[in-house]
Specification:
21% of the residues lie in helices and 33% in strands. The protein is built from four helices and eleven strands. Helix 2 crosses helix 3. It has 205 residues and is α+β, with helices and mostly antiparallel strands. It has a single domain, classed as PPM-type phosphatase domain (Phosphatase 2c, domain 1), CATH 3.60.40.10.
Length: 205
């Protein structure tokens, strides 16, 4: 069922699997809820089936708790993943009516918010990452809250993508092409990799 929140963003996702493996440990979540949408990218530790199993379980926990504030949601995920290899994750929860996004990261999934309006905002903001692994060692959690405006673009990328991905242009027709272009240009090729690109479209009631 299409809702106001699913129409409030457009999305592109591209991923690749470590050569020699059949499953990726890099997964993503995009889950709408009343007046909001949860977006996350997860990387299960290591490679192969066990990494994929940890990431799959984390996806399930996040989807079921999508409307929760992100700090208790990540804490719940940590408790549920203690029997797994664990995951690193960056997560954002967008409140549509207020135009606000709460985001945070545990581990090394890079996050960047690129601004459409560079006259009143700096061109991009970078997510502060805290060292840890959800399910293994959870650091003290703190979420940043930032305003988002129509046209602002959120990019999450796992550690299979070089950190300088955020400096590249996004001069493509669709966000799917943008995600695929980032992966092609900045993917390391020696790890699972995933790129998620989401553009905020505003409140379309």
């Amino acid at each position: 069922m299409e809702t106001m929140t699913t129409r409030a963003i457009e999305l592109g996702v591209a991923g690749s699997v470590l050569p020699g493996q059949t499953q990726s440990g890099d997964h993503h979540v995009v889950c709408s809820f009343p007046d909001g949408v949860l977006i996350a990218v997860l990387d299960g530790l290591g490679h192969g089936e066990e990494a994929a199993a940890a990431a799959t379980k984390a996806v399930c926990v996040l989807e079921h708790g999508a409307r929760m504030p992100i700090i208790p949601l990540v804490q719940r995920c940590h408790e549920q993943l203690k029997a797994t290899r664990g995951v690193v994750v960056s997560i954002a929860s967008l409140t549509i009516s207020y135009g606000l996004m709460a985001w945070m990261g545990v581990g090394n999934v890079q996050g960047v918010l690129r601004r459409a309006d560079t006259q009143t905002h700096k061109s991009q903001e970078t997510l502060l990452l805290r060292a840890g692994v959800v399910g293994i060692h959870l650091p003290p959690l703190a979420a940043a809250v930032v305003p988002v405006l129509p046209g602002d673009v959120l990019i999450f990328a796992t550690d299979g993508v070089r950190e300088d991905f955020a400096h590249g242009p996004l001069e493509v027709d669709t966000l799917q092409e943008a995600a695929e272009s980032i992966l092609a240009r900045f993917g390391k090729g020696n790890d699972d990799a995933l790129v998620l690109v989401a553009r905020f479209l505003g409140n379309h009631t």
